[in-house]
Amino acid sequence: MTAPAKTLSAAEIRAGLVARKFTARELLDDCYARIAAENPRLNAFLALSPERAYAQADRLDGQVARGEPLPPLAGLTLGVKDVLATRGTPTTCGSRILEHYRPPYDATVVERVERAGALIIGKTNCDEFAMGSSNENSAYGAVRNPVAPDRVPGGSSGGSAAAVAAGLVCAALGTDTGGSVRQPGALCGIPAMMPTYGRVSRYGLIAFASSLDRVGPMTRSVSDAAALLGAIAGSDPCDSTSAAVPVPDYAAALTGSVAGLRIGVPREYFGEGMDGEVRARAEAAIAKLESLGCRRVPLEMPHTDYAIATYYLIATAEASSNLARYDGVRYGLRAPADTLAGMYRKTRGAGFGAEVKRRIMLGTYALSAGYYEAYYLKAQKVRTLIARDFQLAFEKCELIVTPTSPIPAFRLGERTADPLAMYLADIYTVTGSLAGVPGISVPCGLTSEGLPVGLQIFGPRFGEDRVLALAHAFERASTAA
Amino acid sequence: MKITRETVLNVAELAHLELSESEIETYREQLDQILTYIEKLNALDTSSVDPLAQVVAAASDFSAAWRDDETRDAGIAAEALAAAPDAQPPFFRVPKVIERES
């Protein structure tokens, strides 16, 4: 059963266990064998948790043997981004400063997926503290894109995207602050979703920018994304920012019927700086949606051009505050020094990588006396305008459709010298992050070089069911063609 | 924008970051470039716009924010201390911060 496990859906895996076509242990043997063979090349996993996974597999196989019903994600092999706490398994955030850190507790999402029957395979590589768009900022080495090994997988959830795209695992959890789930999903050619801010608990998600950070599913198919989101969504007493909004049955929303839906196409997302082939694939995708009965509504979202500047002020300001906790006292690295202040400075100087330091510096500057109003407060006001763009747009349409990234996967090392240029490529994803709305990236074809292109679908707050429905209909129409 | 070496050193001090000579110059240049780009926000008149600190819907959606503030023992104190670089249970030990009067 080695070959098919690479393509099975969550539902097929569960059905296969029930029908005793394979056991959960066999699924794991197969999964870890594949990781052993391919991870040295891809560098998608930083740590594995076989003890935990096999214990869960034995529980599931016991349930099958006793004829008990299986939980919804039974046997789903899952990679967990290394910014999510996993009890007893190293959780480094891709940083030297947490090199040997083993959390004493599980993130709520980890607890929930395990309760739903998933097998926690291990921790996936990422940009340090989720700061990056190429996975090249990991202290443990870059991840390679399985589609084109000389290219980046995107970031920051690059390890999660690569692990799913290469078939190492069935699904993965990523985190998205400015595009970190959607963009690597696009660059590796898999569906990847950022839920509404508040939809999924962040308890145990090691914070980067608290007003933006979200956890989301990265999967082989849209229906798997719906299943995984269903398992992790819902309020959590441990996270006061999680919303008490009822969680609908996402699988039931995938009806295949999208006729009559108004899809907004904002002009600002098709401007300068966009790769010609990305434009062509996105346009073709929109035409396909029209052929399914969707109505195209031209939109203007005039503050889009200010989103990068706004995002990189707010995210770095929050990061400079959140990352103050890495001081060599309670966990992680400590660089010896004679004084407490000296220990802080040396520990942080030695433990953080170049991009993290750059963002801490930028955020500290934006919050410092004399600059707060000109930068941080200004950015918060523009954030209001960007959120309003979305609010007004959703008065004219049910969903917004854009490309996910203006460029396909680029070569390793090609863009590292110019941080600003790297930031600018986040233009289509940071808007939805600032507005708090849900968004998904679904594969919409390949460039002439065979590189995946992603179509992004935004929905109104807590409208994940609608986003998934359109993504699913598009995916079905694409694979049928 | 004109970010000076002094500004970089001041910000690094505020952020408790030890920087090498080459980092100081690199960050001076890059912060200057990034902040110059960010100045584009000044083109927008925001005098009558309220700031948005957190994207929340109705307060009732976030009922968890209004629970009672109760103390509960998570039962992981020993594990948490074990993760520290220098623990002396139940304390975290740090370099001396108070000098003894002589």
Describe the structure.
The complex is a heterodimer of chains A (481) and B (102). Chain A has helices at residues 10-18, 24-42, 50-65, 108-115, 158-165, 182-188, 222-232, 250-253, 276-291, 307-322, 340-351, 354-367, 373-393, 419-424, 427-435, 464-480; strands at residues 45-48, 77-81, 119-124, 171-176, 192-194, 214-219, 262-266, 295-299, 399-403, 439-446, 452-458. Chain A is of the alpha/beta class and 481 residues long. Chain A has a domain at 4-253: Amidase signature (AS) enzymes. Chain A is globular, with a radius of gyration of 21 Å. The model of chain A has no long low-confidence stretch (mean pLDDT 96). Chain B is built from three helices and two strands. In chain B, 33% of the residues lie in helices and 4% in strands. The chains are: A alpha/beta (481), B mainly alpha (102). Chains A and B meet through helix 10, helix 11, helix 12, helix 13 and helix 14 of A and helix 1 and helix 2 of B.
Concise summary:
The complex is a heterodimer of chains A (481) and B (102). With 481 residues, chain A is α/β, with parallel strands linked by helices.
Topology record:
The complex is a heterodimer of chains A (481) and B (102).
Chain A: H1 10-18, H2 24-42, E1 45-48, H3 50-65, E2 77-81, H4 108-115, E3 119-124, H5 158-165, E4 171-176, H6 182-188, E5 192-194, E6 214-219, H7 222-232, H8 250-253, E7 262-266, H9 276-291, E8 295-299, H10 307-322, H11 340-351, H12 354-367, H13 373-393, E9 399-403, H14 419-424, H15 427-435, E10 439-446, E11 452-458, H16 464-480
Parallel strand pairs in A: 2-3, 2-4, 7-8, 7-9
Antiparallel strand pairs in A: 1-3, 4-6, 5-10, 9-11, 10-11
Helix pairs in contact in A: 2-3, 5-6, 7-16, 10-12, 10-13, 10-15, 13-15
Chain B: H1 5-14, H2 21-38, H3 77-82, E1 87-88, E2 91-92
Antiparallel strand pairs in B: 1-2
Helix pairs in contact in B: 1-2
